[in-house]
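Predict structure. Chain length: 51.
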Amino acid sequence: MQQSFKGNKSFLPSKICVVCKREMTWRKSWTKNWEAIKYCSDACRKKGSKA
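Prediction complete.
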């Protein structure tokens, strides 16, 4: 994360889920593997691995 969090989600990086195409905003728990995140939820992960 290049910019510091200013208390506003617009400053956080975001990605698009490869299954449902929804925008997902960066979470602190994803810090170490943000580049590898593809799915917004476990449900999308299960749908994505079947296809």
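Summary: The two ends are 31 Å apart (CA to CA).
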